[in-house]
Amino acid sequence: MSQPTGPSPAAIALNRFGLGARPDEALPSDPQRWLIEQFTHFDVRPAGFAALEDAGKAVAQYREAQQANRRLAIQATPAPEGAADAKAGLKTERKDFRQDVQELYRAGVQARAESALATEAPFVERMVHFWSNHFCVSADNPRVTAFAAAFERDAIRPHVLGSFTDMMLAVEHHPAMLIYLNQVQSIGPDSPAAARNPDRKRGLNENLAREIMELHTLGVRSGYTQADVTEFARAMTGWSVDGFGGGRAAMGDPDRFAFRPAQHEPGVRTILDKRYPQDGEGQARAALLDFAHAPATATHIATKLARHFAGDEPPPALVARLADSFTSSKGHMPDVYRTLIASPEPWLPTAAKFKTPWEWTISSLRGVGHRAIGDIQIATLQTQLGQRVWKPGAPAGWDDVAASWAGSDALLRRVEIAQRLAAPLGERVDARVIAPKIMPALSAATASQIARSESPAGAIALMLVSPDFLRR
Hints:
Shape: globular
Distance between the termini: 24 Å
Strand order of the largest sheet: 1-2
Radius of gyration: 25 Å
Order of helices and strands: HHHHHHHHHHHHEEEEHHHHHHHHHHH
Structural class: mainly alpha
Number of helices: 23
Strand content: under 5%
């Protein structure tokens, strides 16, 4: 029996472009056509995401309870027992809110995984995960955690087959992003709001402006300066979330974007040597549109796509081809995806990418035949594997290179999880039968290890942590 030289184009379509092969899934006869046809099969709003509780409602209820308890505390002064009751009420409301938020988060993670298992458009679903990590928020506090699933559902999924510009605008207007990067706290130093409250220590916050330029669009070392970041931050003042702030502002809907003219820094802004004389919200929007169509943005996006599909060191020719497609199509993502699919570099018969924990989890579940999550708690599992969903801990998102995921400790965690995933399957799944189906380039060494396993569950676990399966 000859030794396989590498995965076939059909296997690459399933495992590198898709989310992992299923044992009952036939190899596509025309892999490139199969990928492109998924554009018409993608479910923008699958049932799990549609059924999620409203994040803004949870945040609004918490804010109302906070305000009520603070009023009680003021009314209770100087009665010690009243103040103590109010303090206890605040503590209880905070605890209840955190519990509600965690339930919402876990439900969102389950919905994401459910969609990845059930989808008939795994390539497009992979692109949702790619863009969610590119335009990432990190659920490091309860307010961001509340909106994390809604962010992917409402800002990423509807635009994954649309234009980069529309996706970017949806992202930068979304409550999750505005809260995560402290844009709701940013006030122009010479704005009417600053003039009314000169003693309040609130001023310009550059976090969102900087990450938009460095991570979301132009990319680091693309030629912008600190002065450009500051000017763009001034242009963005006033971008906020309804229901955040004091007075009447606190009565709004936290699910909605709000522009607050009183917080906006007046005047013309000059960013990357271009003047922006627009008033209000339109000033930052005009700069964002220019960023979206800049050559540096095309190169930045092309580099990340090439890295994701063709190896940790992005092939320069592929980067150039994708950047040209991005520019000529004005960021129309299906055109860019078609260029990616038609390019030779992602189809090389080598295991170009080491799977991240999320990719490994989903491909493992698909590989053993799961089409639904059932009782598997994905949020807990991903935490154990070291890649918490929507919680990268930094605006740059999770790394997309093997060095971040191939350490001995990380591999040991996968071994432990593989054993847990395999245990309930018993003899219902025969790894000797399904391994060649989900890993068409199965090596003789891996096949031999699986065949010699002492138990069916042990064989499944060996399959899932084999070198053949850990890469795509």
